[in-house]
Design a protein that fits this description.
The complex is a heterodimer of chains A (457) and B (219). Chain A has 457 residues and is an alpha+beta fold. Chain A is 46% helix and 7% strand. In chain A, strand 6 and strand 7 form a beta hairpin. The longest helix of chain A has 21 residues. In chain B, the strands form two sheets. Chain B has a five-stranded mixed beta sheet. A three-stranded mixed beta sheet of chain B has the order 1-8-7. Chain B is globular. Classes of the chains: A alpha+beta (457), B alpha/beta (219).
């Protein structure tokens, strides 16, 4: 796609290429100033855990639309690669440039001064969460059998950042041009050669604690393989965790885990099963403990320890989506009324409000990590609204944003209903209600009838 | 997780080592800060008192930076009401990303999401009561017994992210106690250190350790 329009080409030579090799072909043919959207072999095989890769600033295919099996959708249409060439394209013009400039200044200042977006994230990346979620007892370990992992500090964001710096990589880096937060990084091997981008928290958890692996190099290699083959790292880590519980390989077997991912890329029968995600692996190997909702693997927070997140996992139309109810400023938006910090609201109401607010913020195209500055700093939230209004010449208010969020959720739920989803699918797997998780020895206690109230607004 | 420190004596004299800026041993020191070391405190000290007295954090820093506190894996909302007992584990962190990060913060508006595990929800029950009534532990050398004296207790401490970066080295410079195996990597290559580590390990003692930045290094 370029300023002149779109052209569709048939190119069988690209078939079966991993995303990294595919981008090398692109560089030779279109140069290094284009951007790419592509699928790897997993998408071509229409596997349920297949992702869509986007190139980063270094033109590595490391930024993935990972969840929901979207790579399989692209593969089913026979689309391997989309090349975007913006040479000669005009930059979009805001309706009110001066207002946009002023709002953007407040916005950037807000992100930079906040301890999460200006400190924790740029210094250590999203993997800064490993230590504290582990400390909380909500860090799923050995396929959700425990809530703490003994090797957590070996794979933490703090440890990873130190390793990256020591090996000549980067501990602070943007994943796209113009990023203010800079929560990514570059992970090199012991010889200083590029392996992957800084593995994200969810990846480190999925391939790490969930599989009993405490080796950062092994996790980075698994991240690289997932990106190359075009796989969701959460579902792959969960699938391998289930395979480990089934006895296919042992927990902690990093070479075995790497081999399983390679088999997905090769399309072996076992690889196709693994690449179909945790739900399929559990069915094939007779494992009850399948950490999935609506067929999608749970992310890195045990819903028994952090029950409110379990409400969102169960009810989000996407299924087990940790980003569906982010820490958006529900108070500022006044979704469902004001939340008194000293008198915590019920988990159902709070999950509802968070899902509404998050759906709206997602629709702006903003990085979700802005949520933390927006959560704590009203002026930063206002700057976001001001920027949107200035760019498009709108006069959106908080109420409009809330209405937008509700509208999006309603559309998503209508889609699910038409696709055959019922309220019985807005549930966590039964074992979360039955099996207590250490160290807190708690089960998921939210009642089904309460889960059914989440979307009653 | 590291085991209990109960009943373990500490080496009488501190092992003091100096590390230059850029020494790889600082990385191993960071690993110790994350994985956990031990400090002496008053039994019953509040989390805030512990941060001030045992770690030396200023009030502004506690309020402005240390927004996430765990005691025995339970997220704490009120650091004045939350108290430490022998063998408690306290972990200190700055504000963290993600919904879960926001949920774990002190007095989070989303605290209801983790009410089953919050410190307040379990205060006065379970393991903490057992810890309170159980044996204390020794500290301050073989002649010092906190159970007898009743004035000090050992608690395990973890410093994460910005707190580790900002105050980790100062904490190590004040002196900590550590299992010899955890401290061995930091001490590697330091004159006389290996013998002290081995002696502590052979005796089953904790190692009393001070790590100083060599002249010209960052504190």
């Amino acid at each position: 796609m370029s300023k002149d329009g779109a052209a569709i080409e048939d190119d069988p030579s690209l078939k079966g290429l991993g995303n990294y090799d595919l981008i090398e072909v692109v560089k030779k043919r279109w140069g290094e100033k284009v951007a790419c959207i592509s699928i790897g072999p997993a998408g071509e095989m229409r596997l349920a855990a297949a992702s869509i890769a986007c190139t980063d600033m270094e033109m590595h295919p490391t930024r993935h639309a990972g969840r929901g099996g979207v790579g399989a959708v692209m593969g089913s249409k026979g689309v391997k690669l989309i090349v975007l060439d913006d040479e000669g394209c005009k930059v979009r013009e805001p309706k009110e440039p001066e207002k946009l400039k002023a709002a953007n200044k407040v916005w950037v200042e807000g992100l930079k001064k906040h301890p999460v977006t200006g400190g924790g994230l740029p210094n250590y990346g999203t993997n800064v969460l490993t230590n504290i979620i582990n400390e909380s007892g909500g860090f799923p370990t050995f396929n959700f059998q425990r809530g703490q992992f003994e090797g957590a500090s070996k794979i933490s964001g703090e440890t990873c950042a130190a390793l990256e710096t020591q090996r000549g990589g980067l501990a602070t880096h943007g994943c796209h041009r113009g990023c203010v937060i800079q929560c990514s990084g570059i992970y090199n091997d012991a010889k200083g050669n590029y392996v992957s981008k800084q593995p994200e928290y969810e990846t480190v958890w999925a391939h790490g604690a969930n599989c009993g692996i405490d080796d950062m190099d092994a996790i980075a290699l698994l991240d690289r393989l997932d990106d190359d083959i075009g796989l969701d790292t959460i579902d792959m880590g969960a699938a391998i965790g289930v395979a480990m519980e089934a006895g296919l390989i042992k927990f902690g077997d990093k070479e075995g885990a790497i081999d399983l991912v390679r088999q997905v890329g090769k399309g072996t029968p076992l690889g196709r099963i693994i690449g179909s995600g945790a739900a399929t692996v559990a069915k094939v190997f007779g494992v009850e403990r399948a950490p999935v909702v609506k067929g999608q693997a749970l992310p890195a927070y045990d819903p028994r320890a952090i029950m409110g997140i379990g409400v969102t996992y169960a009810t989000t139309p996407m299924g087990a989506d940790h980003t569906a109810g982010y820490a958006i400023a529900t108070n500022i938006l006044k979704c469902g009324g004001f939340v008194d910090p000293l008198k915590p609201e019920g988990q159902i109401e709070l999950s509802r409000n968070l899902q509404i607010a998050t759906a709206a913020i997602d629709a702006t195209g903003m990085c979700l990590f802005i949520a933390f500055a927006v959560l704590d700093q009203p002026e930063t939230f206002q700057a976001l609204i001001d920027m949107i209004n200035a760019f498009y010449g709108l006069s959106l208010t908080g109420d409009d944003v809330t209405a937008l969020g509700k509208s999006i959720l309603k559309t998503e739920r209508d889609f699910n209903k038409a696709a055959g989803f019922t309220k019985e699918m807005d549930r966590l797997p039964n074992y979360f209600k039955r099996e207590a998780v250490a160290p807190h020895n708690v089960t998921f206690q939210v009642k089904d009838e309460d889960l059914d109230r989440v979307f009653n607004w | 997780m590291a085991g209990t420190a109960e009943g373990r004596a500490a080496s009488a004299r501190p092992l003091t080592i100096e590390l230059a800026d850029g020494d790889p041993a600082w990385g191993r020191a960071d690993a110790l800060l994350q994985a956990g070391f031990l400090l002496e405190t008053r039994p019953g000290a509040s989390a805030r008192e512990f941060m001030r007295e045992a770690i030396g954090l200023e009030e502004d820093y506690i309020e402005g930076v240390v927004s996430t506190v765990f005691i025995d894996a339970e997220p704490v909302d009120d650091i004045d009401a939350a108290t430490l007992r022998p063998d408690s584990l306290i972990a200190l962190s700055a504000a963290m990303p993600g919904l879960a990060g926001a949920v774990m913060r002190r007095k989070s508006p989303y605290a209801s999401f983790r009410e089953a595990i919050s410190y307040a929800a379990r205060a006065g029950a379970g393991p903490r009561e057992e810890a309170a009534s159980g044996a204390g532990m020794r500290a301050g050398g073989s002649s010092s017994d906190a159970r007898t004296a009743g004035t000090t207790a050992l608690v395990r401490v973890k410093l994460f992210n910005s707190v580790m970066r900002d105050r980790g080295r100062a904490t190590l410079a004040r002196g900590v106690l550590a299992e010899p195996g955890s401290a061995a990597g930091i001490c590697a290559g330091q004159p006389g250190a290996a013998a002290a580590v081995l002696a502590a390990a052979a005796a089953g003692n904790l190692l009393r350790l001070r790590v100083l930045a060599a002249a010209g290094g960052r504190r």
